[in-house]
Amino acid sequence: MDAFDVIVTARCNTDLKPEEFERQKAMIKPLMEWNPAAGTWNMRFSSSHAEHVSNVLNTLFEAARLYGTVVSVRLMPAEQAGTAVVSTLPPQPPSPVG
Length: 98
Fold this sequence. Notes:
Blueprint: E1 4-11, H1 18-28, E2 33-35, E3 40-46, H2 50-67, E4 70-77, H3 78-81
Antiparallel strand pairs: 1-3, 1-4, 2-3
């Protein structure tokens, strides 16, 4: 099997009560990098670390189930991953995620 990267983008549900929003953010923040320009969390993983990718995706899908977080996952051949656009979601106003 050829090597590939997993490109993950998440957008917080900003319609939550403040305490729920903070719990949602607390689940995502340790896993991904905040992109204030796009209003999204982003991360690129190597498929060579499949167990780590699986753990991160399970956590993100749990955030989606609990809080309505929007999660996007794309596979990209490793040789093309350096040229990939990480976020395919349209820009939105930044969430207060400090």
